[in-house]
Amino acid sequence: MGQEELRTEILEYYRQGGERERLTAGVGRLEFLRTWDVLARVLPAAPATVLDVGGATGVYAEPLARAGYRVHLVDPVPDHVVEAAARAGVTATLGDARALPAADHSADAVLLLGPLYHLLARDDRVAAWREAARVVRPGGVVVGATISRFAWLFDGFVKDYFSDPRFRPLVDRVLVDGVHHNLDASRTWFTSAYFHHPDELAGEASEAGLVVRRRVAVEGPLWMTGPRLTEILANRHLTGLLLEMLRRIEDEPSLLGASSHLLTVAAPR
């Protein structure tokens, strides 16, 4: 994906506030809670240095800083960088995941919780992984988030997107090659992105010089439960039970494709 495409279509989606509140309620809240749960178990102990690549407005960076981590955020969206830099304990700068403004072996952990969504070409995704491998210290960890190949199909029924005849061709394309190419940023649907098949993840990270330790289903299939999920997340006891149960099955290979998002946990060789 070239810089011009990123500068127009995808950046415009985020300039319009796309996803600003996405992780605060419902399915987005489950994604946040599960991602945080995994990070709490795989990151080195604070005060380790974390480079949050594509960290947007700092939704993960700020709680990491509160937990005692030294956090620097890199993002290609100027408004995101300004907002993230205003968060307590977070520094932020403009940058591209494929050419990070960071020195070799300068971070104990590198997070790629957004860039891999929007790099449609495999070479670009491998470049992002390779940059993370360059920046992370020996013994550190790299965590990358991806969207499941089948998430858009499921979402189409959950949110009734299939009622719009323009939606099915997007899904048909994703099922063939993973590419969701939405040039109309005014639509309510997601901007252009790449949807990974679970079996692709290890190959991209390995080619970049990393060793994949785990592939983790973030939400599992429970993100499709609709209003019931909102009820569960409003109940502290049920939320704890949900997180406990999902933790038990997060590595189950047969469930990876049913999750909306996946995390790949890797380490330098």
Number of domains: 1
Order of helices and strands: HHEHEHEEHEHHEEHEHHE
Spans of 5+ residues with little confidence (pLDDT < 50)? 1-5
- Categorize the overall geometry: globular
Q: CATH homologous superfamily, by name?
A: Vaccinia Virus protein VP39
The CATH class name reads: Alpha Beta
What is CATH's topology name?
Rossmann fold
Give the helix tally: 10
Strand content: 15-25%
Distance between the termini: 28 Å
How many β strands by DSSP? 9
Assign a percent range to the helix content: 25-40%
CATH architecture: 3-Layer(aba) Sandwich
List keywords for this structure.
10 helices, 269 residues
Give a structural overview.
- With 269 residues, this protein is an alpha/beta fold.
- The chain has a single domain (3-149, 193-268), classed as Rossmann fold.
- It is 39% helix and 21% strand.
- The protein has ten helices and nine strands.
- The protein has helices at 3-15, 26-42, 61-66, 78-85, 122-135, 151-158, 167-177, 201-207, 227-233, 236-249, and strands spanning 49-53, 70-75, 90-94, 107-112, 136-148, 179-180, 193-196, 210-217, 261-268.
- Strands 1, 2, 3, 4, 5, 6, 7, 8 and 9 form a nine-stranded mixed beta sheet that branches.
- β4, α5 and β5 (136-148) form a beta-alpha-beta unit.
- α2 (26-42) packs across α9.
- The longest helix has 17 residues, at 26-42.
- The radius of gyration is 17 Å and the shape is globular.
